[in-house]
Amino acid sequence: MTHTPIRFGIIGCADIARKVSRAILLAPNATLSAVASRSLHKAADFAKSNGFPPEAKIYGSYESLLDDPDIDAVYMPLPTTLHLKWAVLIAQKKKHLLTEKPVALNVAEFDEIVRACEENGVQIMDGTMWMHHPRTHKMKEFLQDKQRFGQLKTVNSCFTFFTDPDFLKNDIRVKPDLDALGALGDAGWYGIKSILWAADYELPKTVTALRGAVLNEAGVILDCGASLQWEDGKKATFHCSFLASLTMNITAIGTHGTLHLTDFVIPYQEQEASYTASAKPGFNELVTGWEPLPSEHTVTVDLPQEVCMVREFATLVQNIKKKGVKPDMKWPTISRKTQLVLDAVKASIEKGFEPVEIVN
User: Fold this and answer.
1) Which residue stretches of 93-133 are H helix?
2) Most buried of the four, 48, 78, 102, 329, by CB within 10 Å?
3) Domains plus CATH for the chain?
């Protein structure tokens, strides 16, 4: 028996909400039921231009949507500074929460949001889409293969994109009163999470921001990086930036093998995604080439990664609604660890690039 689709409302008409609106429309177990903006006209325009069903409700305030008893879940693409207020209210209204990342400005705010979700029995998940791509699951199988990959030793991750002067002056991601974490929150979140993913979500012992971080006049980070160190000797680095060419790399190196991909946040194509795996490589006799050569693996998909994310989230919500199960803590646990490392990077920059110990 198929469950009734989860009815989504969206508060805020950010650009990313266009992509997620499409994902909700394409997900087999979800439907677009409402959109809210602070302007009724803007909400109506958003619904029309993004293919909302004709019966979808249009609201001129976020509160009105949250008071709608026909909404099961809310997608929240608001600026990070507004997350605490609205996420807590969404939970108190018994709506399940799919939120843009970063979840909060710091882990204290994060814990307040998750506490509200727990107290009200609602699911929370952050919108890191690549985590839900089938390629991600296939790559994880390789990382867990002790014969081919071995033990993880190093991870390097990079997510950068070049922005124009208008972005650097006017975008919400460079405004301290809107998205105070800048490139660290917007792009660094992905790098940090990719490292934790490769390390089976084991937190590092220390985090040290790399010297040379670039901040704007308002103190918002435009470019930064950090190194992470574990007690067992594992190490990792990441770089995030609004000032460098579009790059989305992960390289994970084990004792026997290496995983490499160059489009981890958004695959080059919706329909398929590839990665390279190298297992026990060496040189040929004359040291003029490698033996064996790295193998390229392509994963074809029926649904884009953002649709897989919505489908996964809606399934969790259906399980709560129909089966009475408790919200799944896997996703908020992963998000919290990401937020902890993000906080440590920011603290290290503020302390003159000194090492910061992670305290869970």
Assistant:
1) 107-119
2) 102
3) 6-129+306-312 (3.40.50.720), 134-304+339-357 (3.30.360.10)
